[in-house]
Design goal:
Blueprint (H helix, E strand, L loop, with lengths): L2 H28 L17 E9 L9 E10 L5 E10 L6 H7 L9 E2 L3 E7 L4 E9 L14 E13 L5 E12 L1 E2 L2 E2 L7 E9 L6 E5 L2 E4 L3 H6 L4 H13 L3 H6 E5 L1 H11 L3 E3 L5 E3 L3 H15 L4 E4 L7 H7 L2 H7 L2 H9 L7 E2 L8 H8 L4 E5 L4 E2 L7 E3 L6 E5 L2 H6 L7 H13 L6 E4 L9 H16 L3 E3 L2 H6 L4 E3 L1 E2 L3 H6 L3 H20 E2 L8 H15 L8 H19 L2 E4 L5 E3 L6 E7 L4 E8 L5 E3 L5 E3 L3 E7 L1 E3 L3 E10 L6 E12 L4 H35 L4 H5 L1
Parallel strand pairs: 11-14, 11-23, 11-24, 13-15, 14-17, 18-19, 19-22, 21-25, 29-37
Antiparallel strand pairs: 1-2, 2-6, 3-4, 3-5, 3-7, 7-8, 9-10, 12-13, 15-16, 20-26, 21-22, 27-31, 28-30, 30-34, 31-33, 31-36, 32-35, 36-37
Helix pairs in contact: 4-7, 4-14, 6-7, 6-10, 8-9, 9-18, 17-18, 17-19, 18-19
Protein name: Glycoprotein
Keywords: Membrane, Signal, Transmembrane, Transmembrane helix
InterPro entries: DUF6049 (IPR046112)
Length: about 725
């Protein structure tokens, strides 16, 4: 036995017990961790939900003495929570763009200042809720107020502590905010000597195209959700209504706003106003409910943009230009670019020419070349996608003398506006950009998400605060038209179009089928001709289908490939129905051919309201030679019997397949018809063979007769004379 080792172990054991006793004593003297320091553990279950209702004021000025936060907490756990308290704490002001980007994630330190805890509720059972209100001084010492003593953008944290049943006090819920501080008592922010020039895009874009087809003079929508969006309280209603209300009394705000409009949305809303149908899941249609709302919405939009309001017309249906260009669907791409004419025709306003706001803020070189073929191009671009820029924006993109210009959209503000519940972060970024980042005098173009969904009261706050910025000379309004059509300030090598941008496009599997359908459409319309009786222009029949292909490649379908494929398939089905209205038929029972050159009757039916040039083709059949049939013109809404020249080479029964196509032969019209023929005539070969056989028969018969005569004569010459004659 090693007594030395045992003794050492005994000493260690006694020392360990002494440390534990000392720690226990310290714990008893200092007490449990204070609520201020209690932190939730990662493995702890979520027991409480915190929802911030209101922050007042939204922007702190020298006249603000306190900050009030209201909200609601809900026990979403499985046990009672006692002693619920709230406090507000803040971090240091953000001093760089990187810090601002991190602050948008609401994970910045917030230990620089904090208020005292305020009781919220003594206890909450599972499922119960309680409202909270806390008012804290802007200044004040740590523990009584936020202690803010200088302007800046501050991260805030609303912190809820409580004591779950069977547990200790812990932080149970938090909510992060950004607080713009323009002034504190005695330290008001002065207006910059060179204010930033601010322009704002205001997107009026539906979530995705709704029109799937037309029936008579009415459009058929895929669903009736647009009716809800255009009606009071709907997303598009509030976007238009809040902008109209704010700009009607603030000319500076109006001059800074450019309304980005999807022509397909405006055209769809106008069509809805006249009555429309909605496709049901069972294939049937029913009347839509949004005619009145759509009519009011279009009228209000027309009133808003009448005058000097800047308007940006997106490509029709906010189409994926890059996907179409890369697929070689040039005519569909060009049709999508006709959206400005649609907007002008409906709203009576001329959109900004050559101005593009692409999804993801960039375009590939091929698409830029396609656009440049129509005139000068200005791209509202993600500055991170602009390659090797130098000098101030706008930038001339490419070689010297290029007609392509890039105007940067502020990415930081764009990120802040993706918050779907509040514009508070965006107000903080606006303050940082215009007052605290040291880039005074720059152009600042603000672009919310394309399908911006923000509560109406938050839209009102955003526009009201932006108007206050202009009124306080913290920024200057700038028309987007003045910005994009002014002189370029710098240069850029190009726009980056990364593999990630390519992957985001409408995929090749969709555009490849689109090109096939489009080629068939073009071939069909080339075979159409205006009929003097119906006076229907052929293009008017095909145009709705071509716009259907445009809608099938909307950026609204990015990430929804199955829906894009379904829209292309829908156009293909409609086109097949149109093609099926031109067909060929057999005249009826089997046809008897009584002569060698009997013509074959074929009935061509055209149920389209335009004349059709058609090519008839008869299959090759042994014993029958069919002459090529010239292209025939079939009047609108009529049946025409065409006689195909043929030559019978033998008698008997024949089966001939008759097909119909466009003159090019690329598009088969209708289905193949089958002619049953019964020939009783002799063809040339039969007659020749019969003649030869007859001649041979005559020759052989003559030869045989000749031989008989000759044999008979020879026999008579050699026969002996009768005896009686000899005796004489």
């Amino acid at each position: 036995m090693d007594t030395g080792r045992d003794g050492a172990e005994d000493v260690k054991s006694r020392a360990g017990r002494l440390v534990l006793l000392l720690c226990a004593g310290a714990f008893a003297v200092l007490g449990a961790p204070s609520p201020a320091l209690a932190q939730p553990q990662p493995q702890d279950p979520i027991r409480l939900r915190l929802t911030i209702g209101e922050l007042s004021p939204r922007v702190i000025t020298s006249g603000s003495s306190s900050l009030t936060v209201t909200g609601k907490i809900t026990n979403i756990g499985d046990r009672r929570i006692d002693d619920l308290q709230v406090r507000v704490q803040r971090g240091q002001p953000e001093t760089s763009e990187q810090q601002m980007r991190e602050a948008l994630g609401h994970n910045q330190p917030t230990e620089a200042g904090q208020s005292a805890f305020t009781p919220v509720a003594p206890a909450l059972q599972p499922g119960q809720s309680a409202n909270l209100t806390i008012t804290v001084p802007i200044t004040g010492q740590d523990g009584t107020g936020l202690g803010i003593d200088q302007p800046g953008v501050y991260p805030l944290l609303v912190n809820i502590n409580g004591k779950p049943e069977f547990g200790g006090t812990a932080r149970l819920a938090t909510s992060g905010l950004l607080l713009p501080v323009l002034g504190v008592p005695g330290k008001n922010t002065k207006a910059p000597s060179r204010p930033s020039k601010v322009s704002l895009l205001w997107p009026l874009i539906d979530d995705y195209p709704r029109v799937v087809r037309t029936e008579g003079d009415k459009v058929v929508l895929s669903d009736d959700a647009l009716a809800t969006s255009l009606a009071a309280g709907g997303r598009l209603y509030e976007l238009l209504g809040q902008l109209d209300s704010a700009t009607s009394t603030d000319p500076d705000l109006q001059s800074s706003v450019c309304v980005a409009i999807d022509p397909d949305l405006v055209e769809t809303a106008r069509a809805m106003a006249g009555g429309y149908l909605v496709a049901g899941k069972d294939g049937r249609t029913h009347q839509g409910t949004g005619a009145t709302a759509a009519d009011i919405w279009v009228d209000r939009l027309r009133s808003l943009v009448t005058g000097n309001q800047c308007v940006l017309a997106l490509p029709y249906a906010d189409v994926d230009l890059a996907a179409l260009s890369r697929a070689g669907a040039v005519d569909i791409e060009q049709l999508a670019l006709s959206g400005s004419a649609v907007v002008q025709g409906i709203l009576g306003v001329t959109p900004q020419p050559g101005l593009y706001w692409p999804d993801r803020g960039t375009l590939d070189q091929r698409t830029l070349a396609d656009l440049a073929a129509n005139g000068p191009v200005t791209v509202l671009a993600d500055p991170a996608k602009v390659q090797r820029s130098s000098g101030p924006a706008p930038w001339t993109v490419g070689a010297t003398g290029s007609s392509t210009t890039a105007v940067p959209v502020d990415g930081l503000l764009g990120s802040a506006l993706t918050n779907r519940t509040s514009v508070q972060d965006a107000l903080a970024v606006l303050a940082y950009r215009t007052l605290f980042d040291g880039t005074g005098g720059d152009h600042l173009l603000i672009a919310p998400p394309r399908h911006w969904a923000m509560p109406a009261n938050e839209l009102e706050v955003w526009l009201d605060q932006l108007g206050s910025w202009f009124a306080g000379s913290f920024a200057e309004p700038e028309s987007l038209a003045d910005l994009v059509h002014g002189p370029a300030g710098g240069t850029a090598a190009g726009l980056e179009y990364s593999p990630a941008d390519q992957a985001a496009e409408i995929p090749r599997s969709v555009t490849k089928e689109l090109v096939r359908v489009d080629n068939t459409q073009r071939d069909l319309v080339n075979a159409m001709h205006e009929d003097p009786a119906s006076k229907v222009v052929p293009g008017s029949l095909i145009q709705p289908l071509k716009f259907g292909l445009v809608r099938a490649t909307s950026t609204g379908w990015r990430g929804h490939v199955a829906m894009a494929k379904a829209r292309v398939a829908g156009v293909r089905t409609q086109l097949s129905g149109m093609i099926g209205k031109v067909s060929v038929q057999a005249p009826g029972p089997p046809i008897s051919l009584g002569s060698q050159n009997a013509p074959l009757p074929v009935i061509v039916t055209n149920r389209l309201p335009v004349a059709m040039a058609v090519q008839i083709k008869l299959s090759d059949v042994p014993g029958l030679q069919a002459a090529p049939v010239p292209v025939r013109m079939v009047p609108a809404g009529s049946n025409v019997t065409v006689f195909a020249e043929s030559k019978v080479l033998r008698s008997g029964r024949f089966t001939v397949d008759v097909s119909l196509s466009t003159p090019s032969g690329d598009t088969v019209l209708g289905s193949t018809a089958r002619l049953e023929l019964n020939s009783t005539s002799y063809g040339t070969i039969t007659i020749v063979v019969t003649g030869i056989a007859g001649g041979a028969l005559v020759l052989l018969s003559g030869r045989r007769i000749y031989r008989r005569i000759r044999t008979a004569r020879a026999g008579a010459a050699t026969a002996p004379e009768p005896q009686g004659e000899a005796r004489r």
